[in-house]
Specification:
alpha/beta; eight-stranded parallel beta sheet; globular
Length: 345
Amino acid sequence: MLSAEFERVSLPLADAFTISRGTQEVAENVLVRITDGGGMTGIGAAAPVGHYGETPDTVEAVLPDLLDVVESVGDPHATARIERELRSVVNGNPAARAAVDIALHDLAAKRLGVPLFRQWGLDPDRVPKTSFTIGLDATERMREKTREAIAEGYDVLKVKLGTDRDEEIVAAVREEAPEARIRVDANEAWTPREAVRMTDRLDAHDVEFVEQPVPASDPKGLKFVYERSSLPIAADESCVTLPDVPAVADRTDIVNLKLMKTGGLTEAQRMIHAARAHGLEVMLGCMIETNAAIAAACHLAPLVDYADLDGALLLDDDEFEGVPMDGSEIRLAEVDRAGTGARRT
């Protein structure tokens, strides 16, 4: 027997976070709690993004129907059945479904008394380092943010681009972080020809790869860049659902998967396996999320090549703690609690 509830939380960011599409100062997440008859509770969270058609209001609107499914099935271990019924009740709304899916996985692993990665049989020593994101700002402020990030132990950086001074920004970041691994993310801001020119310039600054250089609405443009780029290309906005994986396989090197796009952990695993079958590398990313969601993604990290799981690190204060992190190191092996490891502080 299961009961469920949800609540919206407003999470101020430590600094205003800007990408090519706009600026965010507060993250609105929706927490989900699913409790069994013995009083054990699983926790999850939705971090909806308007770019993908979801808002906190839409999440709250569909959660009662989703949680009715959970309560009617009544078994947190029946994840396949619940996932199938969730999809039949609500079309789309992946962040809302992800919150429910995460809470169910957390509860199921807690009932078994093991961390989630152990339930799946994954190797916690094969977790890639997470990047730390340097949001768009004045070049000198981005230089300063880089200096602060390096001092805090983040040696993998993701730099947001999409301005008329992108090369200047990357040069400044590289100057402050000569030993760091640097990735860049244009968030669809460039034209295909601009993107090709930028990859040539960024290659000189030892950039690891370029994420989503062109709009997702231009798949031919993405292929144009992929075939001419000096650097590997990662697809984020161009890869949202499982059918997108084979669709982008001939025009990208890496797919960036996020639980808030996939609708939860189960579908994320399917997409990881699909990406492998198509010869693609995989990055596991996130939105700006509380650890109630980020912790779950960390348990999937042994399956991927790259991690960008810094969403909770960008918050001014998170009432949840999750998987221990030391700078860019995700210490999954140190999780000593059953479930995802997320708990209220």
